[in-house]
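Batch manifest line 827
LIGAND: 2-acetamido-2-deoxy-beta-D-glucopyranose
JOB: complex structure
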Amino acid sequence: MFSVQKWKCSWSMVATVASIIVLVSVVHLFLFPVVPSLDYFSARQVQYKCVPINSSLEQSTDHVWENKPKGLNLDHRFPTDLHNGVVYRNAPWKAEIGRWLSGCDAIATEVNIVETLGGRRCKSDCSGQGVCNHELGQCRCFHGFSGEACSERLNLSCNYPGTPELPYGRWVVSICSAHCDTTRAMCFCGEGTKYPNRPVAEACGFQMNLPSEPEGAKLTDWAKADLDNIFTTNGSKPGWCNVDPAAAYDSKVLFKEECDCKYDGLWGRFCEVPVESVCINQCSGNGHCRGGFCQCYNGWYGTDCSIPSVVSPIGEWPKWLKPAHLDIPSNEVTGRLVNLNAAVEKKRPLIYVYDLPPEFNSLLLEGRHFKFECVNRIYDERNATLWTEQLYGSQMAMYESILASPHRTLNGEEADFFFVPVLDACIITRADDAPHLSLENHTGLRSSLTLEFYKKAYEHIIEKYPYWNRSAGKDHIWSFSWDEGACYAPKEIWNSMMLVHWGNTNSKHNHSTTAYWADNWDKIPSDRRGNHSCFDPAKDLVLPAWKRPDVTSLSAKLWSRPRENRKTLFYFNGNLGPAYTSGRPEATYSMGIRQKLADEFGSTPNKEGKLGKQYAEDVVVTPLRSENYHEDIANSTFCAVLPGDGWSGRMEDSILQGCIPVVIQDGIFLPYENMLNYESFAVRIREDEIPNLIKILRNINETEIEFKLTNVQKIWQRFLYHDSILLEAERQQTGFGRVEDWAVEFLQQSDDDVFTTFLQAHLPGPKKETKEPIPADPPTPPFTCWPPHTAHLLHLLCRSHATCTCKEKQTRNSQRKERKKKTKNRN
Ligand SMILES: *[C@@H]1O[C@H](CO)[C@@H](O)[C@H](O)[C@H]1NC(C)=O
Ligand SMILES: *[C@@H]1O[C@H](CO)[C@@H](O)[C@H](O)[C@H]1NC(C)=O
Ligand SMILES: *[C@@H]1O[C@H](CO)[C@@H](O)[C@H](O)[C@H]1NC(C)=O
Ligand SMILES: *[C@@H]1O[C@H](CO)[C@@H](O)[C@H](O)[C@H]1NC(C)=O
Ligand SMILES: *[C@@H]1O[C@H](CO)[C@@H](O)[C@H](O)[C@H]1NC(C)=O
Ligand SMILES: *[C@@H]1O[C@H](CO)[C@@H](O)[C@H](O)[C@H]1NC(C)=O
Ligand SMILES: *[C@@H]1O[C@H](CO)[C@@H](O)[C@H](O)[C@H]1NC(C)=O
Ligand SMILES: *[C@@H]1O[C@H](CO)[C@@H](O)[C@H](O)[C@H]1NC(C)=O
Ligand SMILES: *[C@@H]1O[C@H](CO)[C@@H](O)[C@H](O)[C@H]1NC(C)=O
Ligand SMILES: *[C@@H]1O[C@H](CO)[C@@H](O)[C@H](O)[C@H]1NC(C)=O
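JOB STATUS: finished
ARTIFACT:
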């Protein structure tokens, strides 16, 4: 057996040997110093405890419920243990919840697949200004560099062209009166100052007009630079670029209050402390996070440096690529780098993740002007994790989990699904950050700009990879994190599965409902977006929004607070529209729903001093958020789930605090609604029933309330990004030897989370235990494995309808086997 070190040193020697099998000790790879154990890797595999179910029961595809529970017989609607309804991780689930998990035993078997490690070289090794993708032999260049070898330096301006009235151009987030770093379009103090690398972000560099009224807001004059106050060395004037932090902290000198440390990777009032920036998976320990872009160490590649090439030491291979043995091709080795095959044992579903060019991910992170944008965490002055409130942060969380998942494969030939990582969450917050993104070309529509991003990603994968055409993109997965979901997906990719946060089927709301003009997608011509809905429950999935991991709520077990402590009948907090101080003015905001609700049940006086028409003591509908928001929800029985400019994160607030969600938004799917049985833990009220809302809720009896509360407690972790949180815990521990309170607290939760649920949704359909030879035309078994609402997943795999037999899949498998045989013969 080879030792890890030996392998690295003797590559050329080894390469001359015909075929060597290297068994890498599991102990080497998985030994972890753990107090407490954060190595939960083994638990990351989806558990496959499946029970066959009776397919003929699964007729109901109807997701629209009766609004009034009439003659509700819980035992009839949810017969206990119906056909061994899933008993899953000791949760005695009612038959319908989780039934989609059933009957899939056969696919739990491990598969042996061959992972190919890329050995293609990039021109000039990307000139040290990029990372080589060894699969394609193509450079991913850092921000501000381009060309085949990243040798070309870009000149990205911070400002739009100036005019006499606006010498710095019109406003844009990157607007700069000091030194523009033209590789990043970011603004700094520059040479000649005491702190040349100190950011001069946005309002910092411009003059402030003091308000005319005492309460008024200060206004920035974007036409007048404030050079005096940022460049002065006179300590009695507010300087910025020359202020010594220590003196300023001691209040010995003045500094300009509008100046702030907004860029990532820097901490302290004056950006004087270098800290970790946020990178995808923090470069997996195989690279340096360069302000958001992973600068991988020699040989490693991928957005998160998680892909080894042939020169990467085996002992350092990531856990998801646990190798069983390696085949070293003798006949192709001529001293150059070649592709290397490693046989690996894995469980389906196997997901291939495209390593897209950096414009779709790393550059968006590297070019962020505000450190909190689009990420789910940043790092503080100790480099400890600081979780964000960014609802859009789930896109990054999901991407990281998939990349680090044991279900990931590098072998597209074997993959069941293909994940295309376009980080549109970062486009939302970046779209007007810098002139080079050319929002102008889209008449200011971020939706149109973003559509173009997806289209370019599509063009890239059809040009560079063979996988799209096999299923016309049906086995591809895209993520759209914007408020209204995948409405603006280019028509070319609509066959694929869309991961969104809001599932508008367009059955009732058939046009853009956002009140935010730049996100409107109605104006995108149909030759670009086609004529698709925003969500298709037969193929797409709604994922929960990111919620900051809240240790206080978790340790107080708010999710399990019993019925008797939930004295508030109904609760909603959020913007209630123009009737209230600082309410959103647009009538279309929240599709008018929040406004209607407040009109009936408002519990805080509006601008006219009025309460809702049907105000009641135990009903809270308020625009005022208390400091105990989570506890307020935990003290309520029913909690409203209403739209905002699309999704609003209220489903997650409700579920994570153990409250029964009351969904009011017609024709909109909520997280995992096409997989979970919402009827058993939520209430849906039609929009036109809002005036009767409280009457309806008061009519729900204790038995049913108890039933729903209990069920919320069974599924709440499916709304938690537990995998993502623990991955970060593991990184903190390996990187800094640190185990924070949140890590300990979250480690104690072990039910299926957002990511596991996502994987379960992708479990392949039943596989027949046919040993070779596979009959040319396999018999058609009845469709017994999948309930109708997940049939689409099978559909994705097999590309046929409910009676799917996985025939095509098998054919594909047999083709693969043929291919493999041929490969073997060649060797
Ligand atoms: C499946 O359900 C149908 C109708 O409820 C019933 O007639 C049939 O016997 C069941 N089959 C099995 C195998 O339980
Ligand atoms: C609960 O309500 C349903 C109808 O809404 C009724 O059938 C059931 O008997 C009630 N249960 C109790 C315990 O009152
Ligand atoms: C970059 O562009 C600006 C104007 O857009 C120009 O003034 C400047 O000379 C350019 N710099 C380089 C290095 O090309
Ligand atoms: C510093 O600025 C203050 C206030 O503007 C001014 O009174 C003083 O003369 C300046 N000192 C120097 C050395 O320029
Ligand atoms: C935090 O990380 C940055 C960047 O890697 C490093 O320069 C700094 O010294 C670290 N600080 C601490 C306290 O570990
Ligand atoms: C924007 O449009 C202009 C003029 O049509 C074109 O020259 C430029 O390349 C476009 N920019 C981008 C990023 O597409
Ligand atoms: C994929 O399909 C499209 C349209 O069917 C075709 O134009 C294209 O050439 C195909 N690409 C490959 C690589 O086969
Ligand atoms: C949207 O719905 C309205 C009313 O339900 C209908 O009149 C209109 O034609 C629909 N528009 C589209 C594009 O389907
Ligand atoms: C869009 O699709 C709907 C339903 O499929 C159809 O009724 C409508 O005519 C289509 N509109 C356009 C512009 O193609
Ligand atoms: C929630 O209810 C408990 C009693 O059940 C009470 O002690 C607590 O103060 C309440 N919290 C809030 C924020 O009202």
